[in-house]
């Protein structure tokens, strides 16, 4: 039925398809909504593929069915979205060619199965590791008054984001289902997360210690400087305790707005009584 | 003043669209947007300083899946007003906080609107109007985001400077200092959020390694970042390349056995 469509899709230049996956990935959050989150953007990303696969009026019902399938709940780190789009395109082609033997539910299952782990890796990598490292370097340089700070931060961000999005989309499409098998067999996700979490954690540890210098100005009897005593036990002790306290609140699930407002209230009080200072 | 508010509104929109259409390349972050604001208003030094301090406060904030909690809008307005009124940098933090709460409110409202837009897309597809479905996603979506960012920033910058001068005269010193301390406390909340995602019993040791390294050595964060990456690579090699070495040893023994036949 969609012979012509399949031909068009198969003959369409690879580079242009990869561009669609690329922009589909980067534009993943154009209509973020509570109900199905990034679903409309995913639909937009796969739409051109579907348009090519089902061009004729007879294909209309099939096209609607595929569009609706593309509008299911979706959530992923934008850069990793390109990979899923490429993979989905490969599967949609397979389905268009063998509508009787290929179960379209597999496409939904693969999307859903990949969402979780790729978001985990993606968010940890981009927001947890790359952004932290890029911005830490950027902050230190900017604090010294150099415009190289923001520039280097953006270069680092781009240097990681662009290849992963572009080659992710290409890989997902070209290698198709083989990739899924390889990833689970070689525990690739575990390995990547291992490396990222080490680098990220060390930097976060360093950040907690040094980025915010909170001390106590308390002095007993004009001779005993409390901060010196604390430094003797361990430098940056107060930041360590503060991190621990905040971690406890996060684990307890206290709402962010409550914490932020409390911080300001507590900050005003503690500063007034000279207990803590920046 | 009108021009300032307009251009800064546009900078804010650019930052917002970065996370919507450029895959969150980090243009939206305070460090970058405040630098842009500083460049435009002709005070790069303050822009960089405000950007660095706002970035530090919000460094830990992550958007996990859901639309996250960030100080991007507040930082832009805070930076602009600090430069235009010549105030102290701590004023930026004082302005950023209420703006952050405001932007969270606006985003929540817009999110609900976006739910009905999703339903519009559903019905467009049902009616076979695929072009409309796509347009809603790629045109109306970003436009909504732009409006939700442009209008509050424009209003805040246009009216803010005079308002802030008034507030500065009235607010006692201790409140301003206390707010600065409070903002720095919030930074730890951000760090904790970040930690809660990455840390687990097995790798917690690396957090303490980084902490101890920084606390006792006084290395800059750049130095620590470089050491962190090197460390991760070394450990990765130790953990995963060892396995393949063992495999090769077994493999060569098997080949020798085959030769005997």
Automatic annotation (TrEMBL), chain A:
<keyword id="KW-1133">Transmembrane helix</keyword>
<feature type="transmembrane region" description="Helical">
    <location>
        <begin position="232"/>
        <end position="250"/>
    </location>
</feature>
<feature type="transmembrane region" description="Helical">
    <location>
        <begin position="257"/>
        <end position="277"/>
    </location>
</feature>
<protein>
    <submittedName>
        <fullName>PTS mannose transporter subunit IID</fullName>
    </submittedName>
</protein>
<feature type="transmembrane region" description="Helical">
    <location>
        <begin position="192"/>
        <end position="212"/>
    </location>
</feature>
<keyword id="KW-0472">Membrane</keyword>
<feature type="transmembrane region" description="Helical">
    <location>
        <begin position="147"/>
        <end position="171"/>
    </location>
</feature>
<dbReference type="InterPro" id="IPR004704">
    <property type="entry name" value="PTS_IID_man"/>
</dbReference>
<keyword id="KW-0812">Transmembrane</keyword>
<dbReference type="Pfam" id="PF03613">
    <property type="entry name" value="EIID-AGA"/>
</dbReference>
<dbReference type="InterPro" id="IPR050303">
    <property type="entry name" value="GatZ_KbaZ_carbometab"/>
</dbReference>
<dbReference type="GO" id="GO:0005886">
    <property type="term" value="C:plasma membrane"/>
</dbReference>
<dbReference type="GO" id="GO:0009401">
    <property type="term" value="P:phosphoenolpyruvate-dependent sugar phosphotransferase system"/>
</dbReference>
Automatic annotation (TrEMBL), chain B:
<keyword id="KW-0598">Phosphotransferase system</keyword>
<dbReference type="Pfam" id="PF03609">
    <property type="entry name" value="EII-Sor"/>
</dbReference>
<feature type="transmembrane region" description="Helical">
    <location>
        <begin position="206"/>
        <end position="236"/>
    </location>
</feature>
<keyword id="KW-0813">Transport</keyword>
<keyword id="KW-0472">Membrane</keyword>
<keyword id="KW-0812">Transmembrane</keyword>
<feature type="transmembrane region" description="Helical">
    <location>
        <begin position="138"/>
        <end position="161"/>
    </location>
</feature>
<feature type="transmembrane region" description="Helical">
    <location>
        <begin position="29"/>
        <end position="52"/>
    </location>
</feature>
<dbReference type="InterPro" id="IPR004700">
    <property type="entry name" value="PTS_IIC_man"/>
</dbReference>
<keyword id="KW-0762">Sugar transport</keyword>
<keyword id="KW-1133">Transmembrane helix</keyword>
<dbReference type="InterPro" id="IPR050303">
    <property type="entry name" value="GatZ_KbaZ_carbometab"/>
</dbReference>
<dbReference type="GO" id="GO:0009401">
    <property type="term" value="P:phosphoenolpyruvate-dependent sugar phosphotransferase system"/>
</dbReference>
<dbReference type="GO" id="GO:0005886">
    <property type="term" value="C:plasma membrane"/>
</dbReference>
<protein>
    <submittedName>
        <fullName>PTS sucrose transporter subunit IIABC</fullName>
    </submittedName>
</protein>
<keyword id="KW-1003">Cell membrane</keyword>
<feature type="transmembrane region" description="Helical">
    <location>
        <begin position="181"/>
        <end position="199"/>
    </location>
</feature>
